[in-house]
Amino acid sequence: MLAWEEMQAEGLEANAVTYGCMLDACVKCGHLEKALQIFAIMRQRGLHRNTILYATLIKGFAKSKDPLAAKNLYREMRAERVPCNVVVFNSLIDACVRACDLQGAAEVLQEMTATNVRPDLITFSTLIKGYCSNGELSKAMRLQEELQARQLECDEIVYNSLLEGCVKAGNLQLGLSMFQEMKNKRVRPSPVTFSILVKLLSRAGRLDLAVHLVSKEMRQMYDVPPTRMVWSCLVTCCLKARDLTRAVMALELLDSDCAALGTGRISMYAAVIEGSITSGEVSTALQLVDWAYSRAPPEDARVGLSMDLLKRVFETAGLRGAEAEAQETLDTVGPRIGEHVRGALEDVLMRSKGRLNLDDMGYKGSAKIARSQSSFAPTGDAVDHAA
Fold first, then answer.
1. What's the rounded Cα separation, in Å, for the pair 197 and 209?
2. 58 and 9 belong to one structural domain
3. Buried (b) or exposed (e) across 149-180, using 16+ Cβ within 10 A?
């Protein structure tokens, strides 16, 4: 942008190539208004009749979720007799999909066919993702059939979209069928694929298989190490299912796998600690505070739980009569959190101690943390078990 302004200040005249580069840079950086100003200058100079330039601007309108403006540019292209290629139509479809205008996207596909521009994999992939996101799985499946009828092959992105559609529809069997097809066609699954499978299994009430998939099968059967994203998805699914035991176990497995460091790891611990407090599992919350620090790798020495969360844990412990256990936790993590933080938490614990009548609250104590993984480790393929 500075170079462009300097050119204008020096009175240097840009040629078509310079204009095109500047237009592309503005769209990529999100400066659509500036791109339109430059295009207006090009139009005045008669330098605008170029397919790539129009496609670039249409992509800009797609990013800003403005299908109407994108279609107006397309109409201008037709009026100016500028050839429309597959990139133009794919950008138009993307603009419609991003704005949730699936009817408009379908009309663009019809227009594409009418003008003898052959749809490619990106065309179908964009439409399939739109229908799956909108909960119209049957339409997405029909598009997959049309894709294959045109001798195109589904890639990982298409399969991931279809799997997401199965999650949204709660269709476990179809999702497993899609994953099997993916394997049969030797399309390598990615961590994104497995995150979706975790959601699919969780929604079907098979968290046991989801845990096994992440902790065993991803690495052993598919040679895909679980990433922070996959572990986070698993922890989130456990908490949504109110399965605190498996959420805790997921953290144990996470630490043994060393898959997440820094804020990613500590945010997962924070989520499960929050769930423990909400469920009244004070002992679990205190144990997880201990693990969050004692099991942290050396490079995470300065990454810790928020002071607000720590205060709520120790305040709850005091209210629930677990001050002895809380003090033991403080003694353990004290060297890692520092004297200042420890003193503040001890003060919170003492002030909250005995303020509520435990009998009136109906508190029954905390469930013990399950340390054995064997009861959640089915043998064989988790996907086969689910089927």
1. 10
2. yes
3. eeebebeebbbbbbbbbbbbbebbebbbebbe
Residue 54 is assigned to a structural domain of this protein: yes
State residue 212 phi and psi, 5-degree precision. -65, -40
Kindly state the DSSP code that residue 215 receives in the 8-state scheme.
I
Whole-angstrom distance, CA of residue 262 vs CA of residue 240: 24
CA distance 231 to 254: 7
Q: Are 234 and 250 in contact (CB under 8 A)?
A: yes
- 128 within some domain: yes
Residues 342-347: contacts with CB under 8 Å, at least 24 apart: 344/307, 344/311, 345/310, 345/311, 345/314
User: Which of 137, 168, 185 is where one domain is finished?
Assistant: 185
Terminal Cα distance for the chain, rounded: 56
Give the type of residue at 326.
Answer: A
pLDDT digits over 353-371, tens only?
Answer: 756 444 444 444 444 444 4
Lookup: tokens for 135: 């909960």
Q: Which domain holds residue 145?
A: 120-185
- What contacts 303, CB < 8 A, 6 or more positions away? 262, 263, 265, 266, 296
The 3-class secondary structure across 123-143, one letter per residue, is HHHHHHHHHHHCCCHHHHHHH
Number of domains in the chain: 2
Global pTM reads 0.83
- Going from the C-alpha of 367 to that of each of 64, 274, 280, 283, 287, the distances in angstroms are 49, 15, 9, 8, 11
**Tell me: the pLDDT tens digits for 222-249?**
999 999 999 999 999 999 999 999 999 9
- Please identify, among 185, 206, 229, the residue that sits at the C-terminal boundary of a domain: 185
Residues 94, 161: one domain? Answer: no
